[in-house]
């Protein structure tokens, strides 16, 4: 970089427009980063709730199946006793 270019760049950065432009880029970048992070956190929370729901449904179905199997074996017990 030449000294002339560095000097022109420094003058631009220190100008009102340059400071406004750089601050706008910084604030925009921070806002964009926060939005991405927040969306990621929301997705994780949604996935955790969905997993809890699926696991709870599985537990309910297994309990229902266990109850049905127990009831079926109790109702079939007299038939099996006759066969023995």
Description:
- With 84 residues, the protein is mainly α.
- It has one domain (3-83).
- It is built from two helices and no strands.
- The termini are far apart.
Question: What secondary-structure arrangement, pairings included, does this model have?
Answer:
Blueprint: H1 3-14, H2 16-83
Gist of the model:
The protein is an all-alpha fold and 84 residues long.
Keywords, separated by commas or semicolons:
84 residues, mainly alpha
Radius of gyration: 34 Å
What is the CA–CA distance across the termini?
A: 100 Å
Structural class: mainly alpha
Described by strand count, sense and barrel closure, the largest sheet is:
none
Q: What's the total count of β strands?
A: 0
Q: What do the pLDDT scores average to?
A: 88
Strand content: under 5%
Write the H/E string, N to C: HH
> Shape, please?
rod-shaped
How many domains, in number, for the residues? 1
Residue runs with pLDDT of under 50 for 5 or more positions: none
Helix content: over 70%
SS element count, helices? 2
